[in-house]
Amino acid sequence: MIELGVNIDHVATIRQARRTYEPEPAWAAVEAHLGGADGITVHLREDRRHIQDTDVEKLRTLTHIKLNLEMAATDEMVDIACRLKPEMAMLVPEGRHEITTEGGLDVVAQETRLKQVVERLTDAGIVSSVFIDAELDQIEAAARIGARVCEIHTGPYAHAFHDKGRDAESPAVLAELEKIRVAGEAIRGFGMRFNAGHALNYFNVQPIARLPGIRELHIGHAIVSRAVFVGLREAVREMKQLMREAQVFGR
């Protein structure tokens, strides 16, 4: 059954806008858990623009569901991951000038370095994941470095969905969806777990959720945005329901 990992970065974004102590990301993790989340995701960025080191430490202690730490493949971040031991560490590209992650990690270009990082994470008992575009050469490289999970970047699909009037049957949307389906098939063929995420929301999530073999979706901004109006617990519940309905009725 498909699982939902809720990214709570933007709870911290609100707090950091005032450099104060609220809202508290750990409270958000509890609310997400009560709403049906299967995991909590946070991205500890090098510039610490939202989630802080103390947030990750607190979440590691208090979170009763799995914790996924998004991180750049730097020595500092690997040291933090190996010390705190989240259930999963997802390697992502990171640029200081980007608003949010703008594309998948180029595993092919950094294969030697990333293999070393994955080996360190594995030795620490952490499941390693890579956030990549739906490209076969990146999937093959992910398998070579020993990644256990590939999370496919769904941004191009989500943007096509929005640009084409939210028409799930438009050729552009179907083409992006097919790329993700083919990527998922390849990922599973290499014995890795097929996850997906980025820019998914309440209107575009179901076609992704019904793809064969997909295990987990990571969603943050849309859920936190909905939570402003309905509360985080309800926002998570609604997203989880959409995902489960897609799998049950989409077959």
Order of helices and strands: EHHEHEHEHEHEHHEHEHH
**Number of H/I helices:** 11
Radius of gyration: 17 Å
Distance between the termini: 13 Å
> The CATH topology, please?
TIM Barrel
The 3D shape can be described as globular
Number of strands: 8
- The CATH architecture name reads Alpha-Beta Barrel
Mean pLDDT: 95
Q: Please write the CATH class name.
A: Alpha Beta
Task: Going across the biggest sheet, name each strand in turn.
Answer: 1-2-3-4-5-6-7-8
Residue share in helix: 40-55%
Explain the overall architecture.
- Helices cover about 50% and strands about 15% of the residues.
- The protein is an alpha/beta fold and about 250 residues long.
- The radius of gyration is 17 Å and the shape is globular.
- The chain has eleven helices and eight strands.
- Helix 2 (about 25-35) runs parallel beside helix 11 (about 230-250), helix 7 packs antiparallel against helix 8 and helix 10 crosses helix 11.
- Strand 2 (about 40-45), helix 3 (about 55-60) and strand 3 (about 65-70) form a beta-alpha-beta unit.
- The protein has one domain (about 5-250): Alpha-Beta Barrel (TIM Barrel), CATH 3.20.20.70.
Task: List the SSEs and their pairings.
Elements (H helix, E strand, L loop, with lengths): L2 E5 L1 H10 L6 H11 L3 E5 L9 H10 L3 E6 L3 H10 L3 E4 L19 H13 L3 E6 L3 H10 L3 E5 L1 H9 L7 H19 L3 E5 L7 H5 L6 E4 L1 H10 L1 H18 L2
Parallel strand pairs: 1-2, 1-8, 2-3, 3-4, 4-5, 5-6, 6-7, 7-8
